[in-house]
Amino acid sequence: MAMLEQPLDWTAVPPARATLMRTLGRYGISSLGPVAVSGAHFLASLVFLRNLPAREFGLFSFVLVIVPFCMSLCVALICVPLTQNLATGDRPACFKMNGLLCALYAAAIFAALRFGQAPARAALILALFGGVFAWRWFARCFAYVENRMGAAVASDLVYGVLLAAALTALVLTKHVTLLYGSVALLASALVALIPFGGNFFREQVAALRTARFSEYRPIFHDLTRWSLTGMVLTEATVNAHAYLVTFIAGPGAFALLALGMLLMRPAALVQGALPDLERPAMARAIAAKDWSGLARISRHFTFGLAAAWLATLLAGAALLAWAPQLLLKKGYPLDQVALVAALSAAIMAVRVLRTPLSVLLQAAGEFKALAGIGLVSGVLSVSATLALLLAFGPIASLGGVLLGELAILLRCRALAGEWQRGHD
């Protein structure tokens, strides 16, 4: 078996028409949620871009970087052990740890925003939004682990529709401020918890009351310390520019980068959401030694990400070519925004190729190896981003992120091949 050595031999498993239709339906349904959330966040970015000062828009965009980091922490510390079936008997400990983490997320976001000189009330509400949204993401991942895709999709749709409605109301009533926008985000995230049902909340409350943090210690020692290390180092690779530009050049400088990256946000959200669908499926295929099924999942995963990337690229190019006034306002030169968008598209293209490989390695339990990848790419990305930022400015700093992503891709391909040969 040389499935990943080539790398994966996708032509060995040609899908029948019925299988193809089922796959399209599966991805179509699972993509509804990310599309709704992405659309709502895209609308929020447009509304805030056109109605807020550059500094406040930069702060909002920075929140949309921190919150996905919190979501990734949730996956690394809680969802990974649930997916790996190592915490079946310790599920209450995972639920209790999730409650603690969400509180810590909120505190960290508040501190970061205040350091960036955000107003206190807006910082508090955005911090609560971050904690609630991370809790919703845990519930979403848990729903996928339990094969309850409908609850996850429904939550995404509720969040997207409510946020879009709230933003529309703010525009029509001319009350678009950072504070009111923050309230709209928080309220939408709270209501979006409802589709997960009463059993989920009862289990969460019971775990907070009865479970002990000490019960999580073996889980951390055996598994999540490596997944956490890899995730934190990968975050340094992926978003080094956001932190360095915001804290060195200021939120106003980051606003230009955020505007250009906004055009690739739909693809970025799909890239962040699909692993929650495919990681459990890959883990089940590996446990059953279903190598052809694993190849099929990986192929469809890659094609799904590529389709989202291509659709986002075409939509963004069309927007900049024919209706740039919808996106730009005074102070944001079109040529600079287009350059940031092009660099962001290149970064996302590399992620399309490396994400299925890294999720496959996660499903196989290769977290220590992934942590090693993150160490190399993180050091490369942070150092290159900082050097480019200081030498050439914020836009050039994206080159450091691209270098880090390429390092992850190359190493993941090599490790996936090694893993495959070891299971031949």
Please mark out the parts with pLDDT under 50 across 5 or more consecutive residues, or reply none.
Answer: 1-13
Q: What is the N-to-C order of secondary-structure elements (H for helix, E for strand)?
A: HHHHHHHHHHHHHH
Tell me the Rg in angstroms.
Answer: 21 Å
What is the total number of structural domains? 1
Please tell me what the overall shape is.
globular
If helices are DSSP runs of H or I spanning 4 or more residues, what is the number of helices? 14
Q: How many DSSP-defined strands?
A: 0
Indicate the mean pLDDT: 83
* Largest β-sheet summary: none
Strand content: under 5%
Structural class: mainly alpha
Distance between the termini: 5 Å
Proportion of helical residues: over 70%
Structure notes:
The chain is mostly helical. It contains 14 helices and no strands. Helix 13 (367-392) packs antiparallel against helix 14. It has helices spanning 17-51, 54-83, 91-115, 120-145, 149-172, 178-191, 197-210, 217-249, 251-262, 265-287, 291-322, 334-363, 367-392, 398-422. The model is unreliable at 1-13 (pLDDT under 50). It has one domain. The longest helix has 35 residues, at 17-51.
